[in-house]
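pinned: reference chain
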Amino acid sequence: WGRAGHKPFYLNAWGRAGHKPVRPSKILIKNSGLADLVVDRNKFGEHMQEKFDTAGKGGKDLGKHMANYLADIYGVDALIGELLQTVDDLGLRNNTIIVWSSDQGPAPAGSKTDELRNMLGYAGGLRGGKGTIYEGGVRIPFIVRWPGMVPAGKINEHSIMSALDWLPTLCSISGVSYNEDLFEGEDLSDIWLGSDRSRVNPMYWARGRNNAIVYDKWKLFYFPDKDVSELYDLEVDPGEFNDVSGDNVEVTNALLERLKQAISVNYGKQKRSGKPAFFDPTKPLPKIRPPNFEL
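pinned: its structure tokens
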């Protein structure tokens, strides 16, 4: 593509930095300026301490392993910088939407090899990480650059989005039609452009036999083997420390009804493997509508 005559395009760029195995080059470690890093555990939340305990077994140097992880992330920053500069140099800055995100939260650390000890990603005090449906596993960064359209420097800590929303949102922005009945995602283009509203329908997850649903500030977990529910107010407790289901029975029951509906519709008689049942991509998907309670 050049400054003149370029055609519309869509590009996915997948990176693996920060993913196991983390083994940054010596040049990355040097350029990051982190070679002599010292970790102050007091600056990290409670949920991170277990990871430090694992990586530090046997008196291992946490500073060294944290430096290795951060150097790997530094490499991501450098590559993204090159991508942004290339878009600018091609004269495409003002009419190119660039979105950066991740697939899930930081993976757990190990103690058997240096590469596993290097897995010191921090979810900012959130509970859980990769492979869990707690916030540390499913709440991830999401950055949009579109000069003149997306407010520079704006931080949205309220709206909840999913990768399922990408296609409807990009179709809306680019004026491409699609069959809304065949997609679970929502058009959140106004949120990308600066709004901080709530999504219309709840989002839900199933991980093995554990399930969760989130709607506005409320997140409910359901553990069918024990027939137990937990409710968290993410607005005041993003770390998911305090189960408030007993104080919010109406919210708990309404969300549990919708979550069980989602499990029934999308997973049938859910097997222990947690694998979703086959569905026909040519037929409309059932929508899980908002629960019946006042926000």
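why pinned: Confidence is low (pLDDT under 50) at residues 269-274. The longest helix spans residues 62-89.
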